[in-house]
Write a structure and sequence with these properties.
Distance between the termini: 20 Å
CATH topology of the largest domain: Aspartate Aminotransferase, domain 1
CATH architecture of the largest domain: Alpha-Beta Complex
Number of strands: 6
Shape: globular
Radius of gyration: 19 Å
Order of helices and strands: HHEEEEEEHHHHHH
Strand content: 15-25%
CATH class of the largest domain: Alpha Beta
Strand order of the largest sheet: 1-2-3-4-6-5
Largest sheet: 6 strands, antiparallel
Length: 199
């Protein structure tokens, strides 16, 4: 475990060295998170913090802001009304949005309070109740299923979340040719059971 902790810390150190945008803000946020009892990990090529192996928060640098995303954010009380919705395709995550290191420092006590609540939620065993939605598969994906039965089986063997992520990604392309190219590119990953964001 100690070796893994060092590896994760080294991974995050390397991530920060290569980070051009939001570097100071990410370092400030990392220092606050490390004052909690969360364990530092490196997942999906991002600093991710866990409690006894369960994901609690992940740091995500975007173009216009730095995000601290709570995996079970919809279950948080959010008394300060600071958490943002991740969008129509997210049923569980909610995030803080930061625009400066000074802002992060000012909100340090609130960040830690929200993390504490998130950890207590995880300890309680409370689960996100996901709404059942039927996936609308793009025609290019259906055609690929007809051509390649192994691919069809592999896709339907993925977890619902992984299937959904792929469908959102494939259908995000406006051109049919682009959708086809995306499917072909990710076909090998799907055949070995990997999700879109899996390393």
């Amino acid at each position: 475990m100690k070796k893994n902790l060092k590896k994760y810390q080294a991974d995050v150190d390397q991530f920060l060295k290569k980070l051009n945008h939001w570097k100071k803000e990410t370092e400030t946020l990392r220092a606050i998170i490390l004052k909690t009892n969360l364990q530092e990990n490196f997942k999906w090529n991002l600093p991710c913090y866990t409690h006894k192996g369960s994901n609690i928060v992940i740091v995500q640098p975007f173009k216009s802001y730095l995000s601290l995303m709570f995996f079970k954010g919809t279950l948080l009380k959010d008394p300060k009304k600071v958490l943002k919705n991740n969008g129509p395709n997210s049923h569980s995550g909610r995030r803080f949005e930061f625009y400066s290191a000074q802002e992060i420092t000012k909100l340090a006590s609130i960040i830690k309070a929200y993390i504490k609540e998130a950890v207590e939620l995880e300890k309680s065993g409370q689960k996100i109740v996901r709404k059942k939605t039927n996936l609308i598969l793009p025609s290019e994906l259906k055609k690929m299923f007809k051509k390649n039965s192994k691919f069809k089986i592999a896709f339907h063997s993925l977890t619902p979340g992984r299937q959904r992520a792929y469908v959102i990604y494939f259908t995000g392309a406006k051109q049919a040719a682009t959708r086809q190219a995306r499917i072909e590119k990710h076909l090998p990953r799907i055949l070995i059971g990997k999700g879109l964001m899996d390393r």
